[in-house]
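Example record used in the benchmark description.
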Amino acid sequence: MMTPRVAVLLLGPPDCGKGTQADQLVSRFPLKHISSGEALRAIAKQQTELADRVRQQMLGGGLVSDQVVNDVVVQALATIGDGQSPVLDGYPRNPDQTVIILKALADLGYGKVITIYLDVPPEICRDRWLHRCHRTHAQGTLREDDAAGEEVFHQRMATFEEHTIPALKCLQQSTEEFRIDGSPAVEIVADAIANCLSKFLPACTRA
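Model output (structure tokens):
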């Protein structure tokens, strides 16, 4: 019996550490990190009408239109190589995106979808956001949407509660979900996630 192809959805509130944990997972399992946020920020740097719309929506702390995000993610899925699985960082973000990504994954032959939810209190997310802002400001790499101020962080959190929490409820019915305490140190959280995924994915072979 063939082992089904596995896809991982890594979700959680703003600044809970999704990107950091996705990078940890890529070093431990044959996964490819797909970040809708990074892809959208790359689009926002372009000088196009689409980039202008994306920038405006991101600076307001809201969600970029489903059509744009879905196209970005589905295109990225097409780049997954043989023997690799995708880890989608921060997607889907609402119920409509959930329906689209589950169909896309099924069409691509992913028979097993795992949702990892990083459970982090809002106050810790805010502290991590402030730490990132201070660090990137000192490095001269402050993100444009972060530079808009703390109200954008609070808007992101409100958007998460309004749109992504309902998406999680949909995923609970159609994927295998693991809720992980994302508050401890990076390595501790990574070990907890790896313990869950080791049931479904082989570890990376190290030279």
